[in-house]
Amino acid sequence: MERGDLLTIIAGIAIVIIIAIAVKYGNVIPANRFGSFSKTPVTSPAPITTESAVTTTATVPTVTTLPLTIVPAQVPTLPDPVPVRIYYTSKPLDYPVFKLPEHMETFGGSSNPWADPDVVTFAYVTEPRGGLTQEFRVPYGLWGMNITVEAWTRPQNAQFNMVLCYAKDGRIIDGVEILNRGSVFRSIQVSNTDMYLIIHTDYVDRFLINFITPRSYYNNVTAAGSGSELVKY
Fold this sequence. Notes:
The chain is of the alpha+beta class.
């Protein structure tokens, strides 16, 4: 056998061996540029799975702001009383004092007005002439008299005099003098005791005395249930 044939046979055997090795180690790839094989198997990379991005949105509760409504405190509304008319007595001489004092001018003018203008009228006196009223009792700790004098015939000569007295002994509580015509206010702080008025007029066509009290006093007495009306005898 010639040398060339021998080399051909050896080359064929080598190819067969290489193919066999390649078949047996199919996962082995060359590790360097010199063609040597790496004994470390190279695994195929894991497939890349594309996942759709999930956006998590925080749920914020919707807060509805309602307008603030202030409800005022419920204060009971009490109806105004029907004013009681006070008449003149038919027995003036039975009273401890039935004449006016001298020097009526010493009583002065109007009292200072009340800070609370909301008032209730609970009684009145209206006459064209003078006299002594029935006895009466006022239940309010603060009350007053709005006095109006009208004179049309001879206003220059008109005169109105009045005193408020204790019914027990005739002592004077307060008094008013109005010359010609006009209006005067008197504030009184005597209550729950018997009183009466002595009134004198000259050339007065008519006068009106309204008995008033602040609404707060009226409400308090009425709510207490102790009797909120003027008592007359």
